[in-house]
Every structure is written in C-alpha cells, then in structure tokens.
Amino acid sequence: MATTATPQSVEETVTESLVNFGADADAVNRDATLEDIDIDSLDLVELTQVVEEKYDIDLEGSDFKNIKTVGDVVDLIVAKVG
Amino acid sequence: MRDVVITGVGAVTPLGAGARALHERWTSGACGIRDGEAPCADFDATDHMTSKEARRADRSTQLAIAAGDEALADAGWDEGLPYDPDLIGCVLGTGIGGIATLEGNHDSLRDTGPASVSPLAIPLMMSNAGSAALSLRHDLRGPVFSVVSACAAGSHAIGTALRMIQHGEADAVVTGAAEAPLTPLSRAAFKRMNAVSPTGVSRPFDARRDGFVMGEGAGVLVLEAGDAARARGARILGTIRGYGASGDAHHITAPHREGRGGARAMSVALSDSGLTPEDIDYVNAHGTSTQLNDRAETLALKVVFGDRATQIPISSTKSAIGHLLGAAGAVEAVATLLALRDRIAPPTIGWEEPDEGMDLDYVPGTARPLEMSNGRPPIAISNSFGFGGHNATLCVQAA
Fold it and tell me: At what angle do helices B59-74 and B19-27 cross, to 10 degrees?
C-alpha cells in the first residue's frame, strides 16, 4: 500500500531508516555525505527496499550513481514518487 | 618446523561471557543448561559492538566477534597488530553458519514475497561470515577462510591454523569457531534425528545418557609462531603440539562402532606431536552424551592408549555447556588449555552410573589436580567428531 509522499515525509523516512542502519542521529541531515555517516552500498539497498514498498516506486542501482549526500537521496526518491 | 604457541583466548559460552567464566565455572561444577538447552542467555551483542556492526552479523558471528575481541586483547594485540597484517590469517569453523538469518528470511519470502528478503541475508548467513568479520574488524590480511565439518569444525580450524604457521604461510592466525543453532528449524531437525536428549540432560559417558543438549557459543584463540611470539615478549599460555584428522568412511551420522576414525585421529595427533600415550595427562573428550558417541570414543581411547587409558582423567566440557556443534572444538580447546594451566582436570558433571564396558576415569563429581609424571607442563588431547565421519584431535601443552 503506497503512502502519500511529501518532501518532508520522505526526508523523515530516509532519516529514520539511516539511523536504524546505525548512522548517528545527530549527524544525519541533508548536507551530510553518505560516507560521513558511514552509509554504504548495502545500506542503500536496504533503504531501497524500505522506500519501494512504502511509496510503491522502483529504484535501480544506477539511480544511485551520482548520489553523495542525504539530500541527494531524498531528492531522488521525491522525484521518483513524482 | 616452527613451534606454534597460544598467546590469547576468548570465549562466549552458556557459562557466561569470557574464557575465565567458562574455565572457572565449569571447574567449580556449574552447568549452563536450562530447560534442555544451553543458550548464552546474557549475551547482548551491543555490549560488544556497535548497533551497526550487530545488524551486519548473524548471532553466530556476533558471538565470534565478542570472543575474538577478548582473545586479541588477551594476546596483547589491542594496541595494534604485532606483525605485518599480510602474515596474519584467520580461520574459523562452524557447523551450520547463520541459520537464524536463513530461517528469518525464509519466513519473509514465504509470508510476503521475494521483495521482502533482506539484502543482508547472504552476507549474514554465509558459513564464512565469522572469519570475514574478524578479518575486517582487525585488519587480518593473510589467508582468511572458514572450515565446515559439523561438530569437528572448531578443531579442524585450529589444526588448519597450526599448519598455516608451521608452513610459513602466516606468522599468526586468529582461529576458533562459533555456532548459534538455537532456532526452530535446527531444534526440530536435530530432534527428528533422535540426536537430542529428550530428558534435557547432558551426562556424557553415564549409562543413562540419552542424547546431546544443544548449545551456542564461540571460542577464539590467537596462535603465533613461537619464535615471533618470544621475540616480541608475548605472554605464552601454551603450545599446540600437534593435530590429527581422519574420516570414518562408515556412516553419514553414526560413528564407526569401534571408533576407528576417532582412534586414528588421536594416533595421528600423538605422532604429529612426537608423543606417546604415556605423555598425555588429560583427555578432553568429545563426549556428547549420545549412546553411540560415548561408547565409540571410549573404545577408541582404549585402542590408542592401551593400559594407560584407565589411568588418564577424561572429562567432557559438554556436561557443563551442552554441545556447541561446530563451536565445540574451539571452546573445548580453550577450556583444555586453561585446565592445563591450572593443573586440574575439570569434572564430567552428572556422571554417576557406569555403563557396561565403559570403565575409564571420567572425572565424576568434582575437579581434581592433574598428576604429571615428570614435572614438565601438562599435556592433553582434545577430541572432536562430526556428522559425516569427520574426526579431529588437537594436542595441547600448557606453558
């Protein structure tokens, strides 16, 4: 069941997931790089699983090619949700 | 050939976190079995690693990480590796691997479909996850892999590590084994084999024994080339004197009736160590508490040790912690070493009724001082036998 997405709700979902994966809650913000908060490719695959189900979207590995920051991740998902 | 010394040990067992808890509590007669199982009840992974590291590890690997941290600190490696990382290996054993991860993901697959299977499923459940985790955590870049031989895996891992150092492939190897098999599928499967004790009691070599009690845990040892360890001034706990391995080629689960393969593993370990039966002061038996194993092991000991068999104290760690499957050999190597260090034979807890033809000294009741014939540090063998007819015996001497 897809959930209605706003940029704010997507950011909340992403933040909650990244913290759940072990990122420091105080360090997660739009400008933080994934490297800074120790989020790697396996975490992104897990995040993909969460948001695909929540927003009924499809993300490919190549979608993450130029993703560097938490903000990039949020923007990618918001764009996919449309 | 280079001698191979033990400089650090670590364990997480049903008797608590730490090699010390295992040794001291078993020696004092404590038993970690509750309601027919032997869990590491107080183990909380996040006491030993970050929540991220814990998420990236099956429970079996979490146990290995905790035991590994203890072993490396015990070896004095916590301030940094003493050798070139390229020359430090890691060989861990397991019987099954990450079965809780496998079962949980299979539940997800069945209940909600393929998209709900975790991307972490494979790296968590793979049988080599333990050695991979310790290699990553401690920057061990020499030969790194896991060995799988059911309930002999821990001893095979240590034996393989011994050879690696003897042959110069590595100057040191972090070795041992881990298992976390207390899951619905594994419980049901072992029960269906009639391998598990229906009464929930582990009493190896006792006439009333009726199967093993399944437990979980990990044991890790730091092995170093003796010359390198002495050069760095390491505290040396003991020596792995030798190792013997064999296959029964008899039956997929039952041991050979006369313990043919077990006897050969012991004989090979003795000759590999340059020792005779008269040199052995203590036997840490495989002693599972099954009818077949304990009788076959007794017969094998009689074949190898002859008249000396009745004179050596023989006890089973499984009387105190149940059967840790693939981790058993590693945990028992730790227990054996610490018993030798303190010159004692820990007891086979619960042994009371002798079985016909099984007349060895199983150390009933309480621990007792070891008697050494010629004043040198005591020497023991530790046996591990696994389904598939895999047998491995380690020969250990205290410092």
Answer: 90
